[in-house]
Batch of 2 targets.
Target 1
Amino acid sequence: MTLVYVIVILPMLCGFASLGVDWGRVQMVKTQLQRASDAAARAAITGLVTNVTTAQNMAVLWGGKNSADGTSVVIDPINDVEFGTWDTTNRTFTVLSGAARSNADAIRVTARRTTARGNPVPTVFGQTFGMNNCDVNGVAIAWMPPFAAYEPFSYATGALVGQNGGTGWSNAWSGSTTNVVAASLSHPSGGLPTAGGAAQKQNSGNTNMRRDLTNSFGQTAGPMWISFLINPGSLNSSRFMGLMIGSGVGGQQMYIAYSSGLWTMEQPGGVNAIHPAGATPVAGVTAFLVVRIDLNPAGNDFTYLYVNPTRGIAAPDVSYTLKSDTDFGLNQTAIFINGGGNTNPGRIDEIRIGSTYQAVAP
Ligand SMILES: [Ca+2]
């Protein structure tokens, strides 16, 4: 269940203390516009998991389902619907523009009856004092907390099983044959915040360690971003290691890994493998992999793999590899560290899961 919070802003109101009839009418319109902006913002934030245009359309649609002063409320999708980020500590809304709007976690909708729009609220007694009408706004912000998990492997060296740190996880690591090593992996061009150590597959044999997320990404729908650092131990044939995404219960899993000398995005067992063009793993050299999953409740989901995209920007800047032959289902809850092959001590670190690219590539 996606949580949506609505923050109500005190609306602007024309500044006259009119006679009772006008005051009552303006107050009523204010309440109606407030209700319209509230409904529009709630609808828009749920539309944002699809895209910006859908969010704008939802605001217009749901604003229009409300009326103020006897007429349907008209929301301008460009000027009345703002995309931004909500700071829960300082309770401030920071507007995003252009492509960055798709990274918004909050939407502010203003429902207006103003002279500028040609529809101010007319007065009756105010006209006596030369005030023929009154501008009234209703403003609401809807905020959807970003779904997020982080695993920096801030643990003592030794077995990973039973370790229970990071954020956004509902249990400890289970399984075996992956250890915690002291040194964190680093982003290939630096700058990615890191902490603690890293996870390293034992030199020989297979590993399949599991950890469950507090929030199922299937239940939130829309884009889900995952990033991690990975350092290949060996690129020889039958050596592989990576992250398996998805619980496999009621749906499929996706494996993002190095395997037999290539980056791969595939279903378990090498099924329907896709390899990014122009990017190959190098043994002992850390790469930054970013995965985007667009969940589609109606059928197959869309999964994108980016190899070493630039961090700290609105969207990845490298070409992507698309996979669209897998339906994850709608109750996916787990991440696995999966690897195999002898003399293959691959390492994985800094696993981030979020609803925006910026959340996983800070
Ligand atoms: Ca780390």
Target 2
Amino acid sequence: MSVQLMPTSPNRSGTPAATAPESREPGAGVTPGSGASPATAPVSDDPQQSLAARRRRRFGVRSVLRLLGAVATLLSLIVCCASAVFWARGLMAAEGAVARYGTGFISVSSTDGVVVTVIQRILFADADAEQSYREWADPYGAVPWNHWRFYVLNDTNATPAMPDAVAGFSFQRLSGQGGRRVGLRGVTWSRWMLQVPHWAIILVTCVAPAVRLYRSHRVRRDRLEQGLCLKCGFAMGDVYHSCPVCGERRPVST
Ligand SMILES: [Zn+2]
């Protein structure tokens, strides 16, 4: 009986310092001397502990990276599918969305097999110029200039495809003086326009999902050949009908 009160873990030196934080094994949350049962003694081949070790590993750096990779692949797949849908829709009618903040905006339009992104900024020589511009653009004070504003664009106000595109690609940087015709001074605008064809977006965004699909197919095939658990890779041999680690059932052998 008294043996169980000792810190008997084989990988520990048995010094009093073993009660320091590193002794906080999962399942050993009881204080020493409070009648620690044999079940709480950390033994390396204890299935309880191997489960805890796996849980700890699940939150390691590699698993975080793997999770980020999975999320990125999923986003890539979503963009890929969305691009195909908007490609088809854009052949019938242009559509898009614009986000405005202050006097600038970012818009994305889908039309005629391409996506046109526009970023426009209006620069002012001084505060008076900005004030007179806002009074001209918003005479009733209805625009919440200091908030983000989102609007949907349709066939009448979406950005049309750029005329001088090469294989659907185009880029333009334009700038100029603004508001002269209406008597505004000190107003300059600058605009970036980028046009990318839908097929290019689909081509780029389908790579990660395709690679992932191929890899998972290969891993599954290899595990099947080697008699490993299809889900977690545990070597089941001829012993188990279902995986003792994850519970996955052995596939019916042919
Ligand atoms: Zn398994």
